[in-house]
Design a protein that fits this description.
Number of strands: 24
CATH superfamily of the largest domain: ATP-grasp fold, B domain
Strand content: 25-35%
Bound molecules: glycine
Number of domains: 3
Shape: globular
CATH architecture of the largest domain: 2-Layer Sandwich
CATH topology of the largest domain: D-amino Acid Aminotransferase, Chain A, domain 1
């Protein structure tokens, strides 16, 4: 029997918990509130701050934990993996130095450049404003990334968040004064996709491709969010990508894993989740995350045909090369139900009711109390449809999302043919193939 400690309390962690328990784990969890999905799967949960290494170590020792699985990036940045491993508890999740892959945009851009890995856009890092305005003028259309973890809010894109070079310059100066460093890079145009890989620091094994939807509202309107939902296809590709594009993205991740090992002398244990974009000049790297994606986890883990506990052990023991990773060939559509007003002014502490139906339900930012389920302000419920085709998976997710009662909304268009055709057409026009 393997005792596993899961750290995190969202739908991503609910889905990870499900896969670990299916793999035979005795599950313990540390979370900030009572996620009912994780509570129902775990032998025992500890309610604590996810960055509270001392409490987590005490709990892990008491429960004789064999390994920990880290959900969110803030836990990595807080050095909880370093602390657990120094007490002999191995982790699926990189140490703080290696998690810079996500926590420092400047670190990753510089690493990719130094090791001559393809995929970087034109970029420069700045610690003061010297030369910054000139570089922005040279690029004319650019992105400003605060060089620190800002829960997705540190990135501002010209045309979306600011309209003029002067506004971008002002935001970049704020990043320097708050984060100490800023990365300015060329704005890319194309279609984004997520490639999540397991790695033991040498072997890199890919999961099926997923496309997330960042904007809050139907038709890709409204503010950026943590991700309103996602889809993935039975062939594990995406309708606008060819195998050569996947090969290019995977090759970048393999080269970055090797570069990380050379640069730090340490092996990365966990997940390298690359956000890529297919552009007119090929596959480009947008950013790396050092953990599973949310919602992308819901697209891949339910299809994993291996035992996740075995995959985790292979990561920890640096034997991932012995694993023949395979995923069932199904389409998956995930739609997040979120509080009215999300993301800027979300309702909180409102009761919701989640009826049972054909979809899989993963609980996120909801607390179970007084016999009810209450919104906490972030993405609330992930509704997941799994079927042989996208056309069959989408209505399953849609029926579940629209059946949730309360002051909530979701994006009806995620996973629909109309939206996917729009993505395909966008790339056709961009690549000049129409
Ligand atoms: N899909 C967005 C994220 O996990 O950061």
């Amino acid at each position: 029997m393997t005792s596993v400690l899961l750290i995190g309390h969202g739908a991503r962690e609910h889905c990870i918990a499900e896969a670990l328990v299916k793999g035979g784990a005795t599950l313990f969890a540390v979370m900030k509130y009572h996620n009912p999905g994780i509570v129902s799967l775990a032998r025992e949960v500890k309610i604590a701050a996810l960055e509270d290494a001392a409490t987590i170590i005490d709990f892990a020792k008491q429960k004789k934990i064999d390994f920990a699985f880290i959900g969110p990036e803030a836990v990595l940045e807080a050095g909880v993996v370093d602390a657990l491993e120094s007490h002999g508890i191995p982790c699926v999740g990189p140490k703080k130095t290696l998690a810079r892959l996500e926590t420092s945009k400047g670190f990753t851009r510089a690493l990719v450049e130094k090791y001559k890995v393809p995929g970087n856009p034109r970029f420069k890092s700045f610690t003061d404003e010297k030369g910054m305005l000139q570089f922005m003028q040279e690029l004319s259309s650019f992105v400003v990334k605060a060089d620190g973890l800002c829960a997705g809010k540190g990135v501002q894109v010209m045309g979306d968040h600011f309209k003029t070079i002067a506004e971008g310059f002002a935001y970049a100066k704020t990043c320097i004064s708050e984060a100490g460093k800023v990365v300015v890079e060329e704005k890319l145009e194309g279609e984004e996709f997520s490639l999540q890989c397991f790695t033991d620091g040498k072997t890199v094994l890919p999961m099926p491709l997923v496309q997330d939807h960042k904007r809050a509202l139907v038709g890709d309107k409204g503010p950026n969010t943590g991700g309103m939902g996602s889809y993935s296809c039975p062939d594990h590709l995406l309708p606008f990508l060819k195998q050569e594009h996947v090969n290019a993205a995977l090759s970048i991740t393999k080269q970055v894993a090797a570069a990380l090992l050379k640069e730090t002398g340490e092996r990365y244990h966990g997940i390298m989740y690359g956000g890529f974009m297919l552009t007119k000049s090929g596959v480009k790297l947008i950013e790396y995350n050092a953990r599973m994606g949310d919602p992308e986890t819901m697209n891949v883990l339910p299809l994993l045909e291996n035992n996740l506990v075995d995959v985790c052990k292979a990561i920890i023991n640096e034997k991932l090369g012995t694993i023949n990773l395979s995923f069932a060939k199904y389409a998956v559509v995930c739609k997040y139900v979120v509080p009215q007003g999300y993301p800027d002014h979300p309702l909180k502490n409102e009761k919701i009711v989640v009826p049972q139906n054909k979809a899989r339900i993963y609980y996120a930012s909801v607390d179970q109390r007084n016999g009810g389920l209450y919104l906490l302000g972030s993405r609330a419920i992930a509704c997941v449809g799994i079927a042989p085709t996208l056309a069959a998976a989408e209505p399953i997710a849609e029926e579940a999302a629209s059946s949730i009662q309360g002051k909530v909304f979701h994006r009806e268009d995620i996973g629909t043919k109309a939206l996917i055709d729009k993505r395909v057409q966008h790339l056709r026009v961009l690549l000049g193939s129409v």
